Amino acid sequence: MPQTVRGVIARAKGAPVTVENIIIPDPGPGEAVVDIQTCGVCHTDLHYREGGINDEFPFLLGHEAAGIVESVGEGVTEVAVGDFVILNWRAVCGDCRACKRGRPWYCFNTHNAKQKMTLEDGTELSPALGIGAFADKTLVAAGQCTKVDPTASPAAVGLLGCGVMAGIGAAINTGNVGRGDTVAVIGCGGVGNAAILGAKLANAGTIIAIDVDPRKLEWARGLGATHTVDASETDAVEAIQALTGGFGADVVIDAVGRPETWKQAFYGRDLAGTVVLVGVPNPEMMLEIPLIDVFGRGGSLKSSWYGDCLPSRDFPMLVDLYQQGRLDLDAFISERIGIEDVEAAFSKMHKGEVLRSVVEL
Ligand SMILES: NC(=O)c1ccc[n+]([C@@H]2O[C@H](COP(=O)([O-])OP(=O)(O)OC[C@H]3O[C@@H](n4cnc5c(N)ncnc54)[C@H](O)[C@@H]3O)[C@@H](O)[C@H]2O)c1
Ligand SMILES: [Zn+2]
Ligand SMILES: [Zn+2]
């Protein structure tokens, strides 16, 4: 029997989100219905609301979630009813050209539920990142459920479902940060601060946090930054150079995703260093840079989709580190809120008051 539950809907570009009844179909072949326990508010939800991702309104927002598998469809073997799972937006297909070459973290054909969740009038919903978890329950492809230690706190480990994994992975997977490396992170929201945590986990030497908001820099220090730079007062590139013997950092991570911050990453990097873009730019943003600088500075310019993570490999491993007290995911939870409070959480995010607001369902 299809179920009616509450969900947070973005109906039109820029319009405040609303809590509405949505219809969840029974899981079909390869699908699962998950009873959501917690879902973090990520900047990408706001990008959707602002029409920055695509215009397939109405969206069912929310995608950084943990919950319990309530029912599974035919042929599902990955998870069973009652499993505690983190939802992921990289259910690898095993069959595309990336998967076939042994690089499933780039999978170009990830799975989502085939059936649609709808509003009560039958309007089909676009779930954010194929998840849609600001809802009591959601329908996903079974491969989007990654089973982890059921004794872990959902609010904390659910954050691995998007922003925190994206940040940690930008450092350890995409940036390949190693022991003793110098690392700079531009933009210290949930994603950037997770990149700082990832750099610390990888035993980086100098870790420079850069933001325009002193509160974010304070949090960054708590998570492992060895130096902080307020880019509203100091030139970010000069500051990175000054803190790295005049050279620039081995790895610079742009967790904002604007042309100006990417350029800071590009010029704040040492010769042969790595730039990692993990912040998501808007479609109208353009970059102009002398090609000779691209050649002359060498190294690599990378983008990090979801921290190049492989959920089945990375989520259980990071949950174990969290359980051992070696990965402070709790530090990201600024507040726990109800389903009615997502719009207010967007405005707090916009004002820089929170790292993560976590909706409890
Ligand atoms: N690549 C991925 O897979 C992935 C996954 C999740 C989120 N994201 C993206 O990462 C970005 C960050 O997400 P978030 O949830 O951390 O957002 P957030 O709003 O919490 O953080 C953004 C931070 O950037 C800072 N900032 C803004 N302009 C700046 C500037 N000019 N210089 C320095 N700092 C500046 C803000 O003060 C804030 O601290 C977003 O674009 C989001 O869509 C990407
Ligand atoms: Zn694939
Ligand atoms: Zn996200």
Q: Ligands bound here?
A: nicotinamide-adenine-dinucleotide, zinc ion
Mean pLDDT: 97
Reported for the largest beta sheet, the result is: 7 strands, mixed
How much helicity do the residues have?
25-40%
> Helix and strand string, N-terminal first?
EEEHEEEHEEEEHHEHEHEHEHEHEHEHE
Structural summary, described in words:
- With 361 residues, the chain is of the alpha/beta class.
- It is 27% helix and 26% strand.
- The protein is built from eleven helices and 18 strands.
- 53% of the residues are buried.
Secondary-structure topology with pairs:
Layout: E1 3-10, E2 18-24, E3 31-40, H1 43-49, E4 59-60, E5 64-72, E6 84-87, H2 97-100, E7 118-119, E8 126-127, E9 137-141, E10 145-147, H3 154-157, H4 163-174, E11 183-186, H5 190-201, E12 207-211, H6 214-223, E13 227-230, H7 236-243, E14 249-254, H8 259-267, E15 269-277, H9 291-297, E16 300-303, H10 311-323, E17 333-337, H11 342-351, E18 356-360
Parallel strand pairs: 4-8, 11-12, 11-14, 12-13, 14-15, 15-16, 17-18
Antiparallel strand pairs: 1-2, 1-4, 2-7, 3-5, 3-9, 3-18, 5-6, 6-10
List keywords for this structure.
361 residues, 11 helices, binds zinc ion, six-stranded parallel beta sheet, binds nicotinamide-adenine-dinucleotide, 18 strands, seven-stranded mixed beta sheet, single chain
Could you write a compact summary of the structure shown?
This protein has 361 residues and is an alpha/beta fold. It contains 11 helices and 18 strands. The strands form 3 sheets. Strands 3, 5, 6, 9, 10, 17 and 18 form a 7-stranded mixed β-sheet that branches. It has a 6-stranded parallel β-sheet with strand order 13-12-11-14-15-16, sandwiched between helices.
